[in-house]
Amino acid sequence: MVNDNDLLWTPSAAFAEASNVTRLLDWLRTERGVDLADYPQLWQWSVDDIAAFWEALWDYFGFTSPTPYSAVLTNPVMPGAQWFVGAQINYAEQILRRARPGETAIHFRSEAAGAGSLTWDELGRQVRCVASWLRGAGVEPGDRVVSYLPNSPQAVVALLATAAVGAIWSSCSPDFGQHSVLDRFQQIGPKVLFAADGYRYGGRDFDRRVETAGIVDALPDLQWYVHVPYLDEASAPVATSAASVLWSELAPADVDRPDFSFTPTEFDHPLWIVYSSGTTGLPKPIVHGHGGITLEMSKLLHFHFDLRPGKSMFFFSTTGWVMWNIVVSSLLTGAAAVLYDGNPTHPDPDALWRMAAETGTTFFGTSPSYIGLMDKEGISPRNRYDLSKISGIMLGGSPASPEAMAWCYANIHDDIWLTSQSGGTDIASAFVGAAPTLPVHAGWIQCRTLGADVHAYSEDGRAMIGEVGELVVRQPMPSMPLYFWNDHDGARYRASYFDEFPGVWTHGDHLTINDLGECQIHGRSDSTLNRFGVRIGTAEVYRTVEALDEVDDSLVVCLNLPGGGFFMPLFVKPASGVDVDDALINTIAERLRAENSPRHVPDRVYRVDHIPYTLTGKKMEVPVRKLLLGVPVAKAANRDSMADPAALDFYVEFGSRHSDYELEKS
Fold it and tell me: Residue limits of the Acetyl-coenzyme A synthetase N-terminal domain (predicted)?
């Protein structure tokens, strides 16, 4: 039995000494005369003097610019801060200058394409060829290049080639429906589309050529469609309004390195456009810059993932989630990226662990729900595979319970650096995360990340320790959005982050910071349960309910009713062969009352066959709450952004039956 805050791991002296954090501390001492004893002091310095910190990282990573920067940070406010004004830095160039000839840059596993790898030499060759083709096709700096590709080496090459010529990248994974793709791409007017013929998931092929044709024909500015055979090597481009070309025709031979040049890009030149989850309304197109992403990713992946040459990083993701961009960016450290395309539990539930053993993955990322599945299935990977090369585990996408963290030590191996990190697509990074020199306590994230001036704010704007508050950032970070696409006056950007506390980034998560600087994320503040004036994180309910063998999954919301009342239903997806009867409902109530408080006990428990998730694996608490309050489905949720659109049907019908706020009488 594990309890919240139990000590799970302490780094050995050798592990801490070899870490990139220790190397940075040594470098700061010798090169900058900044003598800091440990990570907490390093973090404090990084936010006390953010300009000195980020300039130190520029030098530490050896970044250079053909034109000097006039200042590290001008106009240090949010929004509006400007970083390294005058500097030029190209994201793709910074990745490929770290090439390690003869060594593996990318490991990949795919249900459709099997297993393989790509060396740094081959990666560089393909990027130069595709970038040269893009230039020949008339793509200029600032043009948008988009993809409808699975998690494959071709997607990585296309991203780096796009960045190399100064064009702007954006991607959707092929499990997105046509409507969802157009919600994103129609906003940005792309010139080139890379699209696969389909993908394979759970042993089933999904042909996407019809969807591709519809997407191409609905994008009036699109000039080229690059067809990538993925399911069938003999597949041909579909007929569309755009000119088409086969992937194999883009890279028939090498482009000599001396004959290729990367387009110089200003520090804040747009690199890519990523999107908010899009559960309601049009997704926000978030624009990040070359310099901010290169610098922030280098920081995150060196010091909070501890990557370097000889290591490799995996996180289960699709090309439609920013975690894919982060995996690709692991190449900035000289480490290898590990890609997986397909169902993580096919053909066996332990498919990802087998992949990790085969590729020698050193940093492994997955979701707490995947760990929960392993636990329920009784799978102990350490008994099946050699996972000794895994030195770090990251549980991301939702808060990690103490039980999920303890499971990793019992079932992977007991000397492992384990972390849950939390950030956002908004900054393509983490606000709170891991440090390899700190201990790991059950249920807690180790620290605030370097350069992130993160605090838990009360409603009146006071920074709190040991209490639940709004996650805020009080100073700018280089990877904060340059702007939202088509948000010409910045109104949508400001409304998204700065309305609650002007000049302070409010992220929308509830956070606790303890006196050691460790952090707990309690869930989105807009999905927080508020009962009798007490705020409850949904993660607290899920931790207790989903620990029951009888429960596969669950979702809880709290509805504020007229007159100050409320109604909190819990929706339970039972394990196979289990009924949601009075006995189970009583067990749930007793556990929630005993492990949490009476306020955690739902007003009613309902059996459901599906829990709705977004394509990025987040429970759709806010859309369900809106549906139950009578908001029309078209305004409450975007089905094309869902992992299983049919999962919403029950809640739509439930909301229509229980209208006029009579839910508590149902």
Answer: 39-93
